[in-house]
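1st attempt posting a full record on here, be nice pls
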Amino acid sequence: MCIAGGAVSAFIGAQDRTDPAVRQPALKTVPAHDHVFFEGDARDCLYVVESGWVKLYRTLVDGQRQIVGFANRGSILGLESDVEHANGCEAITDVKVRVVPIARVTEICLRDGALADQLLRQVGRQLGAAQAQLAAVGAQSAEQKVANFLLTISDLCDAQPDGSFDLPMRRGDMAEFLGLRLETVSRKMTEFHRRGWIAMTSLYRCAIRRRDILEELAMGGEAEGSPAGRAA
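the predicted structure (as tokens):
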């Protein structure tokens, strides 16, 4: 999994909302830093993120945690495994999720073909994001990775007309996900700010000023005069 978001509007079709026998899946609030689910928990539900951000991680053989993805509004969590959750899922911000029992997914999709199509599209988006992340890990330089990350988060956060958006995750989470050192991410963010490509108004508030340059970097190019170092 990579950075995922989408537009799964609801898990009940319009015609079903008028049927009192059909219940809307339960809405659950998860405070920041609490878990939606843990690795190894029984996979008996899917979770549709209605607001907020989560990070997904996996515990390595040495006991360390590796962040494997981030997700926000519209993402469906719990698709990546079968009997047990392969990843842990921790809220970065306060999060609201719609809890859908696995036993009901087939029934709900049969009632609402449009929703079944949305679900399939979401699976495709998350698979594509994961493949893009695999391609980027070994091929992109540090600044290319950071540029791509900022553009993706900006798009998923529906940035303001001035290019500003909330950057909900910590620098350490970014570094872990991108396969870089914390010092490298901090240095690149500072460099982007100094060059006027972004503006950091606070630790968690960013504005993209030169989207053209970041897009060139994200596509594998190099900005004029920028170092091509591949520090990790």
